[in-house]
Amino acid sequence: CSSLAGIMLLEVFLVLGTVIIYFLLSKKKEETLPFKEGWWGKGQKPDTEEDTTIRPFKVETTEEELSDLLRRLDQARFTEPLENSCFHYGTNSVYLRKVVSYWKNQFNWKKQVEVLNKYPQFKTKIQGIDIHFVHVKPPRLPEGQSAKPLLMVHGWPGSFYEFYRIIPLLTDPASHGLSDEHIFEVICPSIPGYGFSEAPHKKDFNSVSAASVFYELMLRLGFNEFYAQGGDWGWLICTNLAQIAPNHMKGLHLNLASVTNMGFIHLLSILLGRYLPGLFGFQDEDVKRMFPFLKKRLCRILLESGYAHIQATKPDTVGCGLNDSPVGLAAYILEKFSTWTDLEFRNLEDGGLEKKFNLDDLLTNIMIYWVSGCIVSSMRFYKENLQKGIGTQKHERLTVQVPTGIASFPNEVMHTPQAWAKKKYTNIVSFHFMPRGGHFAAMEEPQLLAEDILQFVGKVEKEQLWRKK
Amino acid sequence: ESILSPIRSFEYSQKNAVLVPAAALGVGGLLVYWLRSRYTIKTTEMGDGWWGSGERPLKGKEDESIRPFKIETSDKEIEDLHRRLEQARYAPPLEGAAFHYGFNSNYLQKVVAYWRNQFNWRKQVEVLNKYPHFQTTIEGIDIHFIHVKPSYVPHGRAVQPLLMVHGWPGSFYEFYKIIPLLTEPAGHSLNEGDVVFEVICPSIPGYGFSEAPHQKGFDAIATARIFHKLMNRLGFKEYYLQGGDWGSRITISMAQMLPQSVKGLHLNFVFISRRGLRRMISVMLGAYVPWLVGLTREDVRRTYPFIQKNIYELLRESGYLHIQATKPDTAGCGLNDSPVGLAAYILEKFSTWTDKSFLHKDDGGLESKYSLDELLTNVMIYWVTSSIVSSMRFYKENFSKDPGLTAGARVGVYVPTGIAAFPQELVHTPRAWAKETFKNIITYSYMPRGGHFAAFEEPKLLAQDIMHFVRKVEQL
């Protein structure tokens, strides 16, 4: 494998080493994570009471915004790729030219803004910053049924827009061939610093801060009990939310379940799991997805985590050019939609992007980053969460007792077997190997994800599992 | 007397009759092996390469002409730049962030204002053209270099050819202040006496005005080979080498490839990736009994606390390396389209790698060591040549083949070597560790001040050390 084993191996060892030490020194606690107070607005916190109104919001655009974008697309400077490099060196600029040409000539931002506005959006001030969210209620409810609130949190480089295809499957399942035993009202906020949510002005806004803000949001919307769903950063924020407010969360559904608090047993399972899977609780599918470990885990992490390394250390530097060049922004974001959907796409000249997504959706997501100018603040989230290292934060040692459902997609960048997940998520109600799909599950396989959410909620509701914590 | 007595009292017996020759053979064999290994120098394979587009032409010899070259600009180029500077979009920094999150955008706006209103690119182009530039085609690509000869050579003095190789995110321009100190030392009150140089500074292929390779696999070894061919084409059989950053890696490869052509190797950056038990023990003991493992007090001061300086800080500063070594085309794309983004990315290094304490400053301490004109001229070289992406690919090509950068350590360096250890360099390599790879260290100097961009920041100090080293080598 073409790995950076040298210096970067040191990195991995340091992380593992730190983690082992913490494991040895700490005991698994069942305590809750404290709610994180904060004030993220500009300057000093004012003495006046915070404005808690919920204001309707609509995405808007202007001619100026459009002509500025077009001008930048016209003046874009590309560098020819190396011969036969496909997507191995990053986004292939020959394919990028095609995307930019579509962006200039066919993509219709005004029309996409209307698409974005088809769901009701709102803003409300929490802890000093404006939080944007989409709130979709079911169009109709059968007699005697109430809508279950479902908080869905996006990640990077995604946005609330990732959920646009799955929302109708959850708010109106019957019209989409799904069982309407459970119907949801869906709330998709934008993480502060992403999209139309204001970026924090102060340092130290991490996943626990985001979880606390979203907790306040749900309470402000009048929800005392709710479900939460997430992948990428959404996974971590919803996990933290489950740790902060376990009595309010009926169930937690994840399409990514990473476990960073590893211990000696984990290491052992890495070394021997391929040969003695049963001993470590690995299923055949786990072995298939995880081994050979060096190639599928270590090399993969090294090859694919450069962005995380630089964003966790110098976000303002790396984001600067991307906030000024829409083409650079597109290249940076599209690379993830390609590689994280299927690692094999790196061998394709066009990165396989249009196999699973359409350019309108991909560009709409990129436009959200562009028009809100949020790429830099979105990257800062990495530094706030990772700067002390992985496995070093308090919440990573805490477990989750809330009923959890995990949808494990085959092309997710890293696979976490149930055997590992259950050390942290002590109440796994459902764990399914999904037949296809990658990192951006809601956008790529909305039907599969919706079905898994529905069956999970079904289990939780049937046995009223949230009462048994 | 006491030594000879057991020998005199040696009794002849059958057992001894076998033992003696066996011992002699053993000792003799070891002696021969030891003597041989001292003189058998391993070298790196030279190999060959083709980096032009398409297939290598089967017929015809390569055009070996050396063509004079001048940097040019146009109104169009300047207007395009100005337009982009004017339309730049900034994200406000977090309160109290200084340079801890990367380049502070408040300070960046000031730099860009200077760039737009005061910086004079036409004037800087004239500055760049003050030294003679050339281009020549080697292995299918155009190699750019400057070649500066001393204007006056005192009677009887030998002029030493010196190849100086830059790194990332630098360029040949980093050497502009040090060149006169080396070609005309007397004129700059550098009484290093008898040493005068003619200096050749090439641009690494993919950087500045050297054409970027069109094929995959262009690494430091290929660069080393091309630079040897360059020196050969210029008529030099033996020469000195000097380098920092990638220049260090490349010149080391050159010394390992053709040691007979390298009179001496001077480095201001040494990164030895020698892992292993012995190193670990040295690190652990070094904090408490440095003398036992060959570390000096200055070494200890610069190397410890070990985890902090060599692991934590390195991790904090190597994000760029990680992304460039894996996804250079992605990382460089926006930078080739936004000069402001390019400046932030490059100038962040000129801040942090010059002095780590600059992280705490709102303006990154940049103008305390450099002028905006010289910093922006270096950035402009990347901008006008659109070479940021190809410059980043060099990381991927090198790290893919040799992730631990251990090849150098395995082969060893036998040419006379001089090391200038600057205090603010990213990593400090004590002489005790360096000599595991560099078998022939002639000088090792703890420089009093200066960081990673030594030639740019402390040209006089570096020039003095180069001359001090070369004088010693010439005396050998």
From TrEMBL, chain A:
The chain crosses the membrane at residues 6-25, 254-276. The gene is Ephx1_1. GO terms for molecular function: cis-stilbene-oxide hydrolase activity. Its main location: membrane. It is found in: Microsome membrane. It comes from Sula dactylatra (Masked booby). This is microsomal epoxide hydrolase. It catalyses: 1-(4-methoxyphenyl)-N-methyl-N-[(3-methyloxetan-3-yl)methyl]methanamine + H2O = 2-{[(4-methoxybenzyl)(methyl)amino]methyl}-2-methylpropane-1,3-diol. Its EC number is 3.3.2.9. Residues 54-163 form the Epoxide hydrolase N-terminal domain. It is a single-pass membrane protein. InterPro entries: AB_hydrolase_fold, Epox_hydrolase-like, Epoxide_hydro_N, Epoxide_hydrolase. Pfam families: EHN. Belongs to the peptidase S33 family. Keywords: Aromatic hydrocarbons catabolism, Hydrolase, Membrane, Transmembrane, Transmembrane helix. The active site is at D232, Y382, H439. The keyword Transmembrane applies. GO terms for biological process: epoxide metabolic process.
UniProtKB/TrEMBL annotation, chain B:
One of its GO terms (biological process) is arachidonate metabolic process. It comes from the Eukaryota. The keyword Endoplasmic reticulum applies. Its main location: endoplasmic reticulum. The active site is at D245 (nucleophile), Y395 (proton donor), H452 (proton acceptor). It is a single-pass type III membrane protein. It catalyses: cis-stilbene oxide + H2O = (1R,2R)-hydrobenzoin; 8,9-epoxy-(5Z,11Z,14Z)-eicosatrienoate + H2O = 8,9-dihydroxy-(5Z,11Z,14Z)-eicosatrienoate; 1-(4-methoxyphenyl)-N-methyl-N-[(3-methyloxetan-3-yl)methyl]methanamine + H2O = 2-{[(4-methoxybenzyl)(methyl)amino]methyl}-2-methylpropane-1,3-diol; 2-(5Z,8Z,11Z,14Z-eicosatetraenoyl)-glycerol + H2O = glycerol + (5Z,8Z,11Z,14Z)-eicosatetraenoate + H(+). Keywords: Aromatic hydrocarbons catabolism, Detoxification, Endoplasmic reticulum, Hydrolase, Lipid metabolism, Membrane, Methylation, Microsome, Transmembrane, Transmembrane helix. InterPro entries: AB_hydrolase_fold, Epox_hydrolase-like, Epoxide_hydro_N, Epoxide_hydrolase. It is found in: Endoplasmic reticulum membrane; Microsome membrane. GO terms for molecular function: cis-stilbene-oxide hydrolase activity. Its EC number is 3.3.2.9. Belongs to the peptidase S33 family. This is Epoxide hydrolase 1.
